[in-house]
From TrEMBL:
Residues 7-91 form the RimM N-terminal domain. The keyword Chaperone applies. InterPro entries: PRC-brl_dom (IPR027275), PRC_barrel-like_sf (IPR011033), RimM (IPR011961), RimM_N (IPR002676), RimM_N_sf (IPR036976), Transl_B-barrel_sf (IPR009000). This is Ribosome maturation factor RimM. Pfam families: PRC (PF05239), RimM (PF01782). It is found in: Cytoplasm. Binds ribosomal protein uS19. Keywords: Chaperone, Cytoplasm, Ribosome biogenesis, rRNA processing. The keyword Cytoplasm applies. An accessory protein needed during the final step in the assembly of 30S ribosomal subunit, possibly for assembly of the head region. Essential for efficient processing of 16S rRNA. May be needed both before and after RbfA during the maturation of 16S rRNA. It has affinity for free ribosomal 30S subunits but not for 70S ribosomes. It comes from Geobacillus icigianus. Its main location: cytoplasm. The PRC barrel domain binds ribosomal protein uS19.
Length: 172
């Protein structure tokens, strides 16, 4: 059975020429939304995804704006509002060493070098220079872990574990 991975959510239309506003959920928007790439639209009421081909991509404010081949008006893309954009596992490419897909990191248990369990990664933020991993502690509070060499010592996606060396004040 094919596994699917979210790359974005269509939250609205943009203009009248068939563009959609997407909140991106992908690590690599420049690759995923490249002209000619295939994406799959999953709507709640449909049994099968709708295959679309990216016609254009641009960034506007905090959204990725996409248009698809064969969908040239607002009326044609209006039904896509609220739908998820996904790709099949077969479209996931090989990554360089030290790079991971979000789905490989989310759910990993974070421990310190000394063996203290911090919690599990629940979300990944991409605010700028480096990713930030949101780790939920057992008490329900969150701690933010920057994905930088000085802090993240070892990542083992197969064992779902991450070893960190906390900077002063990081876990306070």
């Amino acid at each position: 059975m094919e596994r699917w991975f979210n790359v974005g959510k269509i939250v609205n239309t943009h203009g009248i020429r068939g563009e959609v506003r997407v909140i991106s959920r992908t690590d690599f928007p420049e690759k995923r939304y490249k002209k000619g790439n295939k994406l799959y639209i999953f709507r709640e009421r449909d049994n099968e995804p709708i295959e679309v081909t990216v016609k254009s991509h641009r960034v506007h404010k905090s959204f990725d704006l996409l248009s698809f081949e064969g969908y040239d008006s607002i009326n044609e893309v209006e039904p896509f509002k609220g739908a998820m954009l996904k790709v099949p596992e077969s479209q996931l490419g090989e990554l360089d060493e030290g790079e991971y897909y979000f789905h490989e990191i989310i759910g990993c248990t974070v421990v310190t070098e000394g063996g203290e369990t911090i919690g599990a990664v629940t979300e990944i933020l991409t605010p700028g220079a480096n990713d930030v991993w949101v780790v939920r502690r057992e008490d329900g509070s969150d701690v933010l872990i920057p994905y930088i060499e000085e802090v993240v010592i070892h990542v083992d996606p197969e064992q779902k574990t991450i070893v960190i060396r906390p900077m002063e004040g990081l876990l306070a």
